[in-house]
Amino acid sequence: MAITNVYVTATNPLILSLNAKSFYMAEIWFDQAYVKDCNQTAVASIIGEIVEVQKLNSTPYWTFQYVARLPAASEKTLTLNFNTTLPPGEYSVWLHSYRKGTFTTLYFTIP
């Protein structure tokens, strides 16, 4: 997998768009996303969670809500809302997939 660009879509709250390309023949499901500063300290995060799904006239069930998904052998823009604000600086994004490991971006700047 490759992340080719990171765009700061908004700063308050922080919303990032990542251009991602998958070389895997299976979908990648990301359960965590972190923004790390130049000291590799996590300063913002999104963690997937278990949510209850209610269907009309059906028994509710529980499912895991992932941070993002990347279809197999595809290119997609992933949008991540961190619900926080960060000061200007250099940062990187770390995406974690339980089955595929952790992927990181090059540094990007928040002006």
Structure description:
There is one protein chain. The chain is mainly β. The chain has a single domain (2-110), classed as Immunoglobulins (Immunoglobulin-like). It contains no helices and twelve strands. The chain has strands at 2-11, 14-21, 28-30, 32-37, 42-47, 49-53, 61-65, 68-70, 75-81, 89-97, 101-104, 108-110. Strands 4, 5, 10, 11 and 12 form a five-stranded antiparallel beta sheet that branches. Strands 1-2-9 form a three-stranded antiparallel beta sheet, with no helix packed on it. It is globular, with a radius of gyration of 15 Å. It starts with a strand and ends with a strand.
* CATH topology (level 3) name: Immunoglobulin-like
Order of helices and strands: EEEEEEEEEEEE
N→C terminal distance: 27 Å
Shape: globular
Classified by CATH, the class is Mainly Beta
User: Hey, roughly how much beta strand do the residues contain?
Assistant: over 45%
CATH architecture: Sandwich
Q: How many structural units, i.e. domains?
A: 1
Stretches with pLDDT under 50, minimum 5 residues: none
Report the oligomer. single chain
Helical percent range?
under 10%
Q: What is the mean pLDDT?
A: 93
Largest sheet: 5 strands, antiparallel
